[in-house]
Amino acid sequence: MARRKPDSFATMIRSRRLQLRFTQRLVAGLIKVSPSYVSQLEAGRRQPSSDVVCRLARQLRMDSQRLMSVVDPNIAGIAAGDDRGESPSAWQQLQKDHQLRRLYRITAQEMDVLALVDTMGGVGRTRDFIYILVALRNAWAEE
Asked: Is the pTM of this model over 0.85?
């Protein structure tokens, strides 16, 4: 028996848009992009930024973490740390992972804010810092 291929980002957002009976033009307006950009996303010809993924997830009422991990499999595979407590914390991993910080264009000011978030505790995985950062960027953009 053949295995079912996991849904692509393009398939997921198109299916959800149609399920909600939204037009590409409506979605484009909701997430502040052009209708042609939405069309290219649904055709798999464009790779969205993390900000666009979060705006899409919010407007299409989808799980942003799942959608983000479909767009960027690296995020799903970021090490969560070792259960024995010997591994560096998620914050330490983020500080040392220059490639990830470049990939998400994390500025020095954003690292300062994430350092404050780390002092509050409760962030167990490096990818959680990325989700927090995306949420903060969206909030800052709305100001």
From this structure: no
* SS3 label, residue 126: helix
Query: What are the DSSP calls for 23-68, one per residue?
Result: -HHHHHHHHTS-HHHHHHHHTT-----HHHHHHHHHHTT--HHHHH
Q: What is the rounded CA–CA span in Å between residue 88 and residue 102?
A: 20
Domains of the chain: 9-71 (1.10.260.40), 74-142 (no CATH)
**DSSP 3-state of 127:** helix
User: Helix crossing, 126-142 with 64-71: angle to 10°?
Assistant: 110
Count of CB atoms within 10 A of residue 78's CB? Answer: 19
Q: Provide the residue type at 36 as one letter.
A: S
The CA distance from 56 to 27, in Å, is 8
What does the pLDDT look like over 62-120, one tens digit per residue?
A: 888 888 888 877 665 543 333 334 457 888 889 999 998 998 899 999 998 888 888 88
